Amino acid sequence: MTETLDGTVLDTAARIRAGVESVLAGKPEAVRMSLTVLLAGGHLLIEDVPGVGKTLLAKSLARTLGVTVRRLQFTPDLLPSDVTGVSVFNQETREFEFRPGAIFANVVLADEINRASPKTQSALLEAMEERQVSIDGHTHELASPFLVIATQNPVDMEGTYALPEAQRDRFMARISLGYPAPADELRMLAEHAGEDPLDTLPPAATHDELQALMAAVAAVHLSDPVRSLAVAITNATRRAGELRLGASPRATLHLVRAARAWAALEGRTFVLPDDLLLLAPPVLGHRVLLAAQAAAAGRTGPEVVGGLLARIPRSAWS
To answer: Which of 36, 67, 127, 277 counts the highest number of beta carbons within 10 A?
Structure first.
């Protein structure tokens, strides 16, 4: 087993990352997490207050990739058929024809996903999990790679619907951006106040380069002790008194896939235990449900998951 990834593959990742960071100033951690989810074949949920750059991050990541991109503005009147597509009767051929919805793209930007009704949100479930859409008894495959980047406002904001548990569990990770530091905000005003930074952002990778990068990530080695640690982490959430719903088996799979991508971005061909410990809060935190006492105390899912990591005995995975 080689210790480091091929330099060409790493160069592709570095170009994508640099392109996004040129638009979104001062948020390297969020950019890296976004790239991790992309390379792991997952989906990303970006949650924060309006105006901090959620949509800008999603659009800039999509722009740096040489793939097809569609944007969906989730509103209360958006219909499931707007997402998945619809069969329309053709008067000339006397047959039904399928007209694809916005989900048929490599990168789908689901903007303000929690402003649409739960029925419309659920239209994404099959697509996100199985990379296909079933309409009128016919199954339509989605393109590869396929990535949903969803943005949402906090649930206490006006006009929002809380995402159901099944929907949240489809997202590999949830991140927040927060307000920029004063120096980064000054840089933003100096560089982008007069123009849209996306207008001059060129693609940083071709479709073939992206596929090669994802293949390299999938080949990253996962040792038996690291697998045991992943299972120990998710099992700890199921036994925790602070939680009334722990992480699912899908969460365990997402955790190790994200760890592979994280290791690859470090240039390694193997996953370390520290990769799992670092990624557990953003990967598991949005999937768990807090018990009443923890919620009343103002705890958050990522905080509880982070606290559980210190309680896992080393003997459980070494």
So the answer is: 36
